[in-house]
Design a protein that fits this description.
Layout lengths: L11 H12 L3 H6 L1 H26 L3 E2 L29 E7 L9 E6 L4 E7 L4 H13 L1 H8 L8 E3 L17 H4 L4 E7 L1 H4 L4 H22 L5
Antiparallel strand pairs: 1-2, 2-3, 3-4, 4-6, 5-6
Helix pairs in contact: 1-3, 3-8, 5-8
Length: 231
């Protein structure tokens, strides 16, 4: 009899590597341990991304799980230090974004999956949108409150948490008495949920992540509508 259970993508070695990278964040150390990165972090993550393609297409045919080694859904492990005071060369996490097919044309929300010792999560939305995009989302929210409430206050959304920062006062030009004033003050429109390192190493990760994406999908759909994007 064939065992069709999904094998885990990540293992305790994944987290051992990321913790060790945090302690030894140098180009010399990474070069010496690159085979461990490939085996325990990058390759399993690319396999997960490839396996996410079919279930993601059922959530939205406009979203992509791109398992290319470069330029796809997987974030680079190398940090961009050009404009940062932090000159450490590597991220101590590995993340992925599942993006809209038209992301190069129009700022679009994404789905996310993030692996980091002590801070693994899935989610979706728009993180640090540019000012014009932020103004556009707020205007859409102000004019379409009921659909936002259905997307973010329904039973499916329970257990998800909003991330990011908010203004201390209502944004200029918006009614301080609007029923969604707390949402209008957001600087980020992203939400999701955490899972622990042990769960990341289980065979349940992929189906759970798919269900998590389904739960945040109505909000992603709403943000697509705000940007006049298909979902």
């Amino acid at each position: 009899m064939t065992d069709n259970r999904q094998m885990p993508y990540f293992t305790p070695a994944t987290f051992r590597f990321l913790r060790a990278l945090g302690r030894n964040n140098s180009r010399e150390w990474f070069a010496a341990h690159k085979p461990d990165y490939e085996r325990h972090v990058r390759e399993p993550f690319l396999a997960l991304i490839a396996d996410m393609a079919a279930p993601l297409a059922k959530i939205s045919p406009h979203y992509r799980a791109d398992a290319r080694r470069n330029g796809g859904s997987l974030f680079r492990i190398h940090r961009d230090t050009r404009f940062s005071n932090n000159k450490l060369p590597y991220k101590t996490w590995q993340g992925s974004r599942f993006f809209h097919a038209r992301r190069h044309e129009i700022p679009a929300p994404s789905f996310y999956l993030h692996i980091e010792p002590g801070d693994c999560f899935t989610g979706g939305g728009m993180w640090h949108p540019e000012s014009d995009t932020l103004k556009n989302i707020r205007g859409f929210l102000a004019e379409n409150p009921e659909a936002w409430k259905r997307a973010t206050r329904g039973k499916a959304f329970e257990g998800l948490s909003f991330w990011g920062e908010s203004l201390s006062r209502p944004p200029r030009g918006f009614d301080p008495g609007h029923e969604l004033v707390d949402d209008l003050k957001r600087k980020d429109y992203a939400a999701g949920e955490n899972f622990d390192d042990a769960f990341a190493c289980s065979s349940e990760l992929l189906p759970w992540a798919v269900e998590s994406f389904k739960r945040v999908a109505p909000m992603v759909d709403y943000l697509c509508a705000a940007q006049e994007l298909e979902f």
